[in-house]
């Protein structure tokens, strides 16, 4: 069966080459030659599809191409951090409430550090909090301390991992900025 379609494809390729030469010699002005070229192209595509369909082994399969990716499951992003004022803006005043939201959290303990970016990362405030393991989203609110600093402040949120020997390691999961006014 394969050999028969291979000969049909070779014959269609030769006919397509002849018709293409006819179109070339007529400089594309002959309508019959162009229509014949389109028809021969269709015959070639059909013959190629039949050749590839009959060369497959096993259950019914449209083409013989193996899929490159067999699993389309993507890894869900974890520890997506959002730090805003209570009104969902990035502008806060001292003594305002700051809201930390972590979607798809992977740690039970976090630490949030606010640093002054224009003062060589001077620490303004550090707050730690715990999250229940079964909650889909972690939300925590705290009050920004009274400070004389005004301007951009870096906010980093780190997950805390406690080893068996009692030592703690911090893994930064998100950084963002607030504007202290």
Describe this structure in words.
- Helix 1 runs antiparallel to helix 2.
- The strands form two sheets. Strands 2-8-7-4-5 form a five-stranded mixed β-sheet, with no helix packed on it.
- It has helices spanning 2-25, 31-54; strands at 80-85, 91-92, 97-103, 109-116, 122-130, 137-143, 151-162, 168-180.
- The N and C termini lie far apart (79 Å).
- The model has no long low-confidence stretch (mean pLDDT 84).
- By secondary structure, it is α+β, with helices and mostly antiparallel strands.
Query: What composes the largest sheet?
Result: 5 strands, mixed
**Given the structure, what is the number of helices?**
2
Task: Give the CA-CA distance, first to last residue.
Answer: 79 Å
Strand content: 35-45%
Tell me, what's the shape? elongated
Radius of gyration: 34 Å
List keywords for this structure.
alpha+beta, 2 helices, 8 strands, 181 residues, 5-stranded mixed β-sheet, elongated, single chain, 3-stranded antiparallel β-sheet
Q: Which helices and strands appear, and what pairs or packs with what?
A:
Elements: H1 2-25, H2 31-54, E1 80-85, E2 91-92, E3 97-103, E4 109-116, E5 122-130, E6 137-143, E7 151-162, E8 168-180
Parallel strand pairs: 2-8
Antiparallel strand pairs: 1-3, 3-6, 4-5, 4-7, 7-8
Helix pairs in contact: 1-2
What's a concise summary of this model?
The protein has 181 residues and is α+β, with helices and mostly antiparallel strands. Helices cover 27% and strands 35% of the residues. A five-stranded mixed beta sheet has the order 2-8-7-4-5, with no helix packed on it.
């Amino acid at each position: 069966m394969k050999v028969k379609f291979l000969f049909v494809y070779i014959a269609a390729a030769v006919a397509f080459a002849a018709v293409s030469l006819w179109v070339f010699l007529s400089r594309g002005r002959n309508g019959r030659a162009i229509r014949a070229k389109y028809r021969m192209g269709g015959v070639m595509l059909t013959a190629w599809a039949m050749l590839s369909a009959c060369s497959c082994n096993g259950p019914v399969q449209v083409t013989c191409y193996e899929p490159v990716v067999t699993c389309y499951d993507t890894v869900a992003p974890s520890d997506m951090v959002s730090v805003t004022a209570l009104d969902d803006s990035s502008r806060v005043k001292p003594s305002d409430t700051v809201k930390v939201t972590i979607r798809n959290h992977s740690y039970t303990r976090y630490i949030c550090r606010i640093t002054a970016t224009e003062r060589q990362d001077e620490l303004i405030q550090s707050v730690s909090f715990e999250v229940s393991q079964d909650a889909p989203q972690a939300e925590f609110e705290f009050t920004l301390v009274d400070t004389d600093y005004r301007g951009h402040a870096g906010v980093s949120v780190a997950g805390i991992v406690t080893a068996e020997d009692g030592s703690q390691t911090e893994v930064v999961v998100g950084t963002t900025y607030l504007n202290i006014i």
